[in-house]
Write a structure and sequence with these properties.
It comes from Streptomyces spinoverrucosus. This is DUF397 domain-containing protein. The protein is of the alpha+beta class. The protein has one domain. It has one helix and four strands; from the N terminus they run ββββα. Strands 1-2-3-4 form a four-stranded antiparallel beta sheet. The N and C termini lie far apart (39 Å). The mean pLDDT is 90.
Amino acid sequence: MAEVPPNLTWERAAPPDATGPGPWIEIAFGEGDDGDAPVYLRETSAPDIVVTTNRRKWDAFVLGVQAGEFDHFVEGVEAEA
């Protein structure tokens, strides 16, 4: 398992008006700006469990989300009011 740097800046993926502890997904970008630079993901309810990928794969995932490639996973799920 890759070592997780202790000085990461975690960004929470939550709506701006969100209250409470979540659980929410948090992301942190490691050193470097090339495709192999590390990207770290965790859930606020289990911050000691960290998934690591790289910038190239993260960017491909984000593009897929923006293109609607994963929308079928939430078909029929109603948004919370």
